[in-house]
Write a structure and sequence with these properties.
This protein has 9 helices and 5 strands, in the order βαβαβαβαβααααα. It is α/β, with parallel strands linked by helices. Helix 1 links the parallel strand 1 and strand 2. It is globular and about 50 Å long.
Amino acid sequence: MRRVLVIDDDPAIGHIVSLALGAAGWQVESATSGRQGLRKVRSFQPSLVLLDHQMPEMGGLETLMALRRSGQQVPVIVLTATRDEATQARFVQEGALGVLTKPFDPLQLAADIANLDQGPPEKAARSMPEGLRSTYAAALRDELQNLADLLPWADEPIPPGLALHAHRIAGTAGAYGFPAVSAAARAIEVALETEAPDWESLRDKVLASLP
C-alpha cells in the first residue's frame, strides 16, 4: 500500500485527495503547514508527498528545500495553481518529480501521479460521492459570500487575506466540480496582479457563480 502525505494549508484539498487516492487503495495523511509536514514526513514515512505551492509562513518551495536539506529523499509532486513555467521548473530543479496544476481532476489524480512517478497505472474512483459534493456546495456558498465581502469598493485598499482566500477557492472548487466558481476565484487572482481591477464586475462574477 502506498503511503501519501498531503501538505496543503487548505484542509479541503487533503480531504479530496484522501477520497480520490483512498479509492485506489492508498493510505493518505494530511498536514496543513510546511512545518507540520516536515514533522509528519519523519513520523508517517510516506512513499510520496503531495506539496502545495502557496502556503503562509512556509511556502512549498521552502518546504521542499528544507526536506532535502534534512536528507529526506521521498518523492515529491507539487500541487499549484500557477501556470508560470519558471516557477514550475524551479520546483523540479530542487528535486520535485513534477507539478500537477490546480484545479485537478480527483478521478484522474491517481493516474496523473502514476504518470509522474513512472509507476504502474492506478485505478481511480469512478465518481465523487454526491453527498460530499452537496456538503461542499453548501459550505462553498458561505465561502463565496465571504470572498465577495472581501472585495474592496472603489479606492479602498486591498484587504489582507484576499489573495489566499481566492487561491483556496480556485483550487478546491474545480476539484469538486464547480468550474464557474473556480474561474471566478481565478479571475480575482489575475486581477490582483493588475493596476486597476474592476472590483464591481468581479464581485458580480463571484456572486453569479454561487452553486
